[in-house]
Amino acid sequence: MSRRLYYLPLAGCLAAGITISLNAASNAQQNSQGSFPDTQKHWAQPFINALAQRNILQGYPDGTFRPTRPVERDEFAAIIREAFNQNRERQISSGSAYRDVPSGYWASLAIEEAYEMGFMNGYPDKTFRPRQSVTRAEVLTSLARNLELSQRVPSTATTAQQAQNAKAPAQQASAQQTPRQQTRRPIVLPFAALTLMQPLMSAAKTATPPAKAATPPAQPAQSQTVASANSTSVPASQTLNSYYDDADQIPQFARDAIASVTRAGIVVNHPQQRLLNPNQPATRGDMAAFIHQALVNNGQVPPLNSEVAASRYIVGREPNRSTP
């Protein structure tokens, strides 16, 4: 028996489009509130919520966040672009200057800005490898490379009042950055891409990532790689061995940088604080924790209250102290 074909009139198509748009808007509002159904019992929920409420991290059109999903290089560039507003150190014609970033690629602008701010580099073969997962060591090295990190900041707020007080510099910093943020060119996704299962900020990754390179992208000179938090007489090896049981697994290119971010309170390790797992892919939950702590260090967001369970995974967190 032949099937009958049903034709939807133009008005119906427009109505369907409105329904899709309304659903997307509803999910976007849900994401901005940090209420993701798949993070309710996830260890990184407080970090995720804090960044989602500031539109630094967003979820997928179905309302989920997928905190265990590995972050790939193009998505990392997009997150960097939303989280930080550093001065440009260098120039590139566009993200499509790399052989494997086609013109019009959804993350081309983010790749361009992440490179110009000094957070990311390409590979010697003139590729960027946008679909390649980033490791935890690579993420931490990137943050150490270009942020002015304080030597030691409180990793947690011991009282609600301290958390409230921390918001003042965050709001001031946000107000100072607003004019510059308004000049940013938006990342425009094609309509077809919006209908796929992609994050509202970054594309979903359905293809298998290419094989990971044996060596990381070319690193800048060591004097540029290590942030100000590393200006200490304590050798990097001593810091790493003091905090991590798997310090011997940290790649040589990342050792000084990870010592720097460790002293700055950026590193968050779950489930065991003393296991860095530097060569494992960074998940979206990991990324939220690292970015959150970097913003805490810069005074842009308040630290987690020490009573929040997730705070116990912050490496080197200071014990609770009563205010004088």
UniProtKB/TrEMBL annotation:
<feature type="compositionally biased region" description="Low complexity">
    <location>
        <begin position="205"/>
        <end position="229"/>
    </location>
</feature>
<dbReference type="InterPro" id="IPR051465">
    <property type="entry name" value="Cell_Envelope_Struct_Comp"/>
</dbReference>
<feature type="signal peptide">
    <location>
        <begin position="1"/>
        <end position="24"/>
    </location>
</feature>
<feature type="domain" description="SLH">
    <location>
        <begin position="95"/>
        <end position="157"/>
    </location>
</feature>
<keyword id="KW-0732">Signal</keyword>
<feature type="compositionally biased region" description="Low complexity">
    <location>
        <begin position="156"/>
        <end position="184"/>
    </location>
</feature>
<dbReference type="Pfam" id="PF00395">
    <property type="entry name" value="SLH"/>
</dbReference>
<feature type="region of interest" description="Disordered">
    <location>
        <begin position="205"/>
        <end position="233"/>
    </location>
</feature>
<feature type="region of interest" description="Disordered">
    <location>
        <begin position="151"/>
        <end position="184"/>
    </location>
</feature>
<feature type="domain" description="SLH">
    <location>
        <begin position="241"/>
        <end position="305"/>
    </location>
</feature>
<protein>
    <submittedName>
        <fullName>S-layer homology domain-containing protein</fullName>
    </submittedName>
</protein>
<dbReference type="InterPro" id="IPR001119">
    <property type="entry name" value="SLH_dom"/>
</dbReference>
<feature type="domain" description="SLH">
    <location>
        <begin position="31"/>
        <end position="94"/>
    </location>
</feature>
